[in-house]
Q: What sequence folds into this?
């Protein structure tokens, strides 16, 4: 069925982009899967035009690969790529945290506290989707508080590659609880403007996620090998 786009096509295109991004992050479009424009358009009840634009944007963000004769494929990283990417983002987040502790305003700190409160409510409900969205906003806000545009750009580019994996790292209940505790430690360090502590917490936070993801991917690879 052909769908006529609404006059405010800019909002529609943005909504479709965000929807496809969420499907990728939450693993509902699995790594290595092809993004079929026709099927996506039908399932989201839109024409193929906003789907096509969203795929182009996702490719620019590094969440999708455009491969000749195959089309758009959801990004699939090797275990080595995953480890290297997490190691880079750990240092970027550590530097963001250090600068944020030195530069953060009271207004931004209040905003972070509000987001932390909302995130804890999502955690209490075990609403992983809502929790992750708030979690990502917190990390981006800390990065922005660092007041370094180059660092912000690098963080966004590198983090896009592993967003889906960061989402999955909280599916382990014990590890999720640990991540929540670390977020409270971040807030405490920012309140006291302790840049050294903040850098250390941020780096360890990301490395803990890396370890969870690596363990998860190795377990999945073993299951596949055993099933052969």
A:
């Amino acid at each position: 069925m052909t769908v006529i786009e609404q006059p405010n096509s800019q909002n529609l295109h943005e909504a479709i982009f965000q929807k496809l991004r969420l499907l990728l992050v939450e693993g509902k479009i699995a790594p290595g899967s092809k993004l079929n424009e026709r099927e996506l358009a039908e399932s989201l009840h839109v024409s193929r035009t906003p789907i096509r634009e969203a795929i182009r944007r996702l490719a620019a963000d590094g969440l999708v690969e455009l491969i000749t004769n195959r089309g758009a494929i959801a990004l699939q990283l090797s275990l080595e790529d995953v480890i290297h990417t997490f190691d880079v983002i750990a240092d970027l987040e550590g530097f963001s945290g250090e600068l944020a502790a030195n530069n953060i305003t009271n207004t931004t700190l209040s905003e972070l506290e509000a987001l932390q409160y909302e995130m804890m409510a999502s955690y209490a409900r075990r609403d992983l989707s809502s929790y992750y969205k708030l979690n990502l906003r917190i990390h981006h806000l800390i990065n922005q508080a660092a007041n370094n545009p180059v660092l912000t750009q690098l963080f966004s580019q590198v983090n896009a590659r592993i967003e889906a994996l960061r989402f999955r790292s909280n599916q382990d209940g014990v590890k999720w609880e640990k991540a929540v505790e670390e977020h409270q430690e971040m807030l405490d360090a920012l309140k006291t403007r302790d840049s050294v502590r903040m850098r250390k917490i941020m780096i360890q936070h990301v490395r803990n996620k890396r370890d969870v993801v690596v363990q998860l991917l190795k377990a999945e690879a073993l299951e596949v090998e055993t099933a052969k």
The domain at 79-227 is CATH 1.20.120.530 (Four Helix Bundle (Hemerythrin (Met), subunit A)). The longest helix spans residues 195-227. The chain is about 75% helix and 5% strand.
